[in-house]
Design brief:
CATH architecture of the largest domain: Up-down Bundle
Number of domains: 2
Radius of gyration: 17 Å
Strand order of the largest sheet: 2-1-3-4
CATH topology of the largest domain: Glutathione S-transferase Yfyf (Class Pi), Chain A, domain 2
Strand content: 5-15%
Distance between the termini: 18 Å
Shape: globular
Number of helices: 7
Number of strands: 4
């Protein structure tokens, strides 16, 4: 088993943090996405979506998509639980993780994808959409600050995959100068708590 990884991208970091929280070590292979190594025919044979992370299983199959990889490891190593402890809890963790993906991660990465030179010639860029995403990301951070007024973590009273997604999204926002505002005290409190966990350096 090995993980095709990239230190440059936020989604592989989500998997690395997930694994670190569970104390799982998996050999990694760095994919040079700056050199478009993920767009070669060799890599497309592993993942036709040309993104990382990708997990090569012991039987030679390739599992891609961040949450799918995390769910695989959750099944193998259920403790500590990062995707819910029962059906109800798992539903709420899933709900909040999807919100962090759609409302936070997608909007924070939008300006980078649509306005940064890194993606020029790689995808069709729509700079106006990038700016729409920037405005939405700022609004979502303010919304999340309010949500965190009455709970410790994104999905409740325990650290979960939803916190991992939000942390990686917010950290990636630095590339596009999207950040937590000084008056967002609840969000700042949460951020300081999760970003000082040992797993955050994974």
């Amino acid at each position: 088993m090995q993980l095709f990884d990239s230190k440059m991208a936020p989604n592989p970091r989500r998997v690395r943090i997930f694994l670190a929280e569970k104390g799982i070590e998996v050999p990694t292979v760095q994919v040079d996405i700056a050199a478009a190594e993920n767009r070669t025919a060799e890599f497309q044979a592993k993942n036709p979506m040309v993104n990382v992370p990708v997990l090569e299983l012991d039987d030679g199959r390739y599992l891609s998509e961040t949450v799918a990889i995390c769910r695989y490891f959750e099944g193998l190593h259920p403790d500590p639980p990062l995707m819910g402890v029962d059906a109800v809890d798992a539903g709420f963790v899933e709900m909040w993780n999807r919100r962090m993906e759609f409302e936070l991660m997608n909007n924070i990465t939008g300006p980078f994808r649509h306005t940064h030179a890194f993606f020029k010639g790689r995808i069709p860029q729509v700079p106006e959409w990038g700016e729409v995403c920037r405005e939405a990301a700022v609004e979502r951070l303010a919304w999340l600050d309010g949500e965190l007024a009455d709970r410790e973590f994104i999905a409740g009273d325990r650290f979960t995959i939803a916190d991992i997604t939000a942390l990686c999204a917010i950290d990636f926002g630095a590339v596009s100068q999207i950040k937590i505002e000084p008056d967002q005290n609840h969000l700042q409190r949460w951020y300081e708590k999760v970003s000082t966990r040992s797993s955050s350096g994974a």
